[in-house]
Amino acid sequence: MKKTIIQTARVSLLTAVVISNLSWNSISEEENNPPLLTIKGFTFKDLNNNGKLDIYEDTRLSIEERAADLVNKMTDEEKANFLMGTGMPGFDGLTPVVGAIEGRVPGAAGGTYEIKRLGIPAVIVADGPAGLRIKPIRTNDKNTYYCTAFPVGTALASTWNEALIESVGKAMGSEVKEYGVDVLLAPALNIHRNPLCGRNFEYYSEDPLVSGKIASAMVKGIQSNNVGTSIKHFAANNQETNRLSINEHISERAMREIYLKGFEIAVKESNPWTVMSSYNLINGTYTSARKDLLTDILRNEWGFKGIVMTDWFGGYAGFNSIVAGTSNVTQQLEAGNDLLMPGLPAQKKVIIEDMKSGKLAKEVVDLNVKRILELVLKSPIMSNYKYSDKPNLTKHAQITRQAASEGMVLLKNEKNTLPFTDKQKEVSVFGVTSYAWITGGTGSGSVNNKHTVSLLEGLTAAGYKLDKELIDLYKPYADKEVAAEQERRKEKGVMALPERLPELKINDAFIAKKAANSEIAFVTLGRNSGEFNDRVVDNDFNIAKEEIEMLDRISKAFHEKGKKVVVILNIGGVIETASWKDKVDAILLAWQPGQEGGHSVADVVSGKVNPSGKLTMTFPMKYEDTPSAKNWLGTPIDNPSSVTYEEGVYVGYRYFTTFNIKPSYEFGFGDSYTTFAYSDVKLSSSTFKDKLTVSVTVKNTGKIAGKEVVQLYLSAPSQSIDKPKEELKAFAKTKELKPGESTTLQLMISPKDLASFLENKNAWVAEAGTYKVLVGASSLDIKNTTEFLVEKEITVEKVKKAFELDVPFNELKP
Ligand code: BGC
């Protein structure tokens, strides 16, 4: 067939508006082809064959140009509808805008408004972040819609392996696409400010560089499927208690250096399609209504091009105000929060009224609408993507199994207790969690997977000989406890929090018998938490009395017989380890490793996988050592309305190293079945110009192949302001090194890596002086140091003042 050569038409925004009113000539060439329209030298197809010039339908034009054309075709009513989602099914008492429709994909979190008249379909958004969250079973449908439950955020980040995370994202994104969803509400990268945050399992780290790099890799992987992501919750959503109304007092420096940095990296490196603003207020204003955050910083400073959506019901002080519909809708739209989710009739009313009265400017509405249109235009539904509803779950099971095992952190391994390779000898498996394995946390971050492989199943499949009497005792007990827990949560409703399952009582004589017959004991300790509430210290952060007793008795009995005890931690966030770690021979931090968890643990304990995960957060000796412990949850204590981040930038290891507080396990720590030697730390120059490369050689000096995570910390001069003793500025993971094999890694340092944020100068400034480079295996295990000079102070970036304090307060200083 003869090809029609069509001149590429680039129509500026202005031209697009002007030419939509001009007359046109049809120059139809072939019967099969739609007629061509020529206007002022530009040639377009009349795609609808209706003689009308619909610029927005012409895919040769940029999405921006098409969206600009569409905005002009929309009525005010359509615009108001478009600025919010279509409601949330299952939320009684809230009449949805256009009928809380289940949408194309049941169980998804929401969708945008469909404009049939203009051929604009609804975009479907669904949670995230441990995999796609949709309903697995549909009414009158014999097919199932299970998704892969991948490891939780803490587990993924502990791999420190960006390429691996990208492959996880790619798999996750293909489930998004093949189940007909357009945007995954993930990744979540809030900073672990305090170990008790109930959603830390979804988040990556106490360090913004790790958070940002892992999030970028995840975004790249997911979006490689041409579906979108929503990096969340922007920003400083660090506690669940009163999350809809908590006012956080935070300095601009702490915001920029700690709480925003990860988002900055993710936006600049991976171009997420959307950002989700958080629930909380910062210095007196909701994040969803902060122009400095959503426009000055996110868009103008970082160059973000996508849309911002609220978190679900974000900007309301609580459930009562949601029902009453009192919020600051217009301020949110003006701030650059384009889409209000999940969408309420009260919001529409305000928008229409404020548009009419002129309080809400047309330009603001049009800009928000245009950005949402751009999202729709690039989503799979716009091109009518024929999703299969059959993602490759078998392949993804392999990916999650591998990612989970690489995220496991070997906290302790006395006398090479692990790997345990003798499959002839019997293994005693204790702890209710071994039989009732925890896949991931609860709330919007949980995934409806078909089956989770427990430790029992994983070890069995790996060929271990497990003590049958223990299985016969524990298995029915665990099943009963799981059923009771499920019943309890069902009664409490959607916001019910998970509770720790009680341990089975077993007597000393029974344990002694096991110690006599088995070669080794595996004891799993489990913890779960979820959205809507925070964790507590007693019986959660601290291990429960019955757990200590269990460990004591098992350790005593097994050690008396010269046998080893391994603790497996099936947890989502940090727990206390200092008081009991000496009682056992090995500790494997397995995290909540997703649906293949039991297989992933078996891969590590059997030595099939040499553990290479490292902590992305500090495990303190005791909870009270946490820098934010003093102001955690805020005041008044029984029902906090505000919280002051007095610890400033001294979050996590920045605090522990600067203030010389000894942790139980430090940030960056993780053992291996092999050993590594570091050598030849070299700088590309001893004076910093506009960038610097640090190279380091790592050699596997042990007997087993393995990977090492190399961390580069900087210790900056601090003449003008106080600074943490060391800050992570780069990291890299080696490939698998065979025994004796070495590799040389290159780590880059850019000017901004040297800079701290000086509030009095509104600038990121790298002071002149000597910078110490610390290259190590953890934040405390520094292997080599070197230094470079910055001859003259560098003002790396000048910015507009943001986050004006509503209440003055003193920040912690060393
Ligand atoms: C959570 C978000 C989630 C949203 C939609 C909110 O409660 O905070 O993380 O994406 O619900 O389910």
Automatic annotation (TrEMBL):
Keywords carried by this UniProt record: Carbohydrate metabolism, Glycosidase, Hydrolase
Keyword Hydrolase among UniProt keywords: yes
Gene3D superfamilies: Glycoside hydrolase family 3 C-terminal domain, Glycoside hydrolase, family 3, N-terminal domain, Immunoglobulins
Taxonomy, superkingdom: Bacteria
Transmembrane feature ranges: none
GO BP, sorted A to Z: carbohydrate metabolic process
Ranges for domain Fibronectin type III-like: 708-779
GO molecular function, one term: beta-glucosidase activity
Keyword Hydrolase: yes
SMART domains: Fn3_like (SM01217)
Protein family per UniProt: Belongs to the glycosyl hydrolase 3 family.
Name of the molecule in the record: Glycoside hydrolase family 3 C-terminal domain-containing protein
Lineage: Bacteria, Pseudomonadati, Bacteroidota, Flavobacteriia, Flavobacteriales
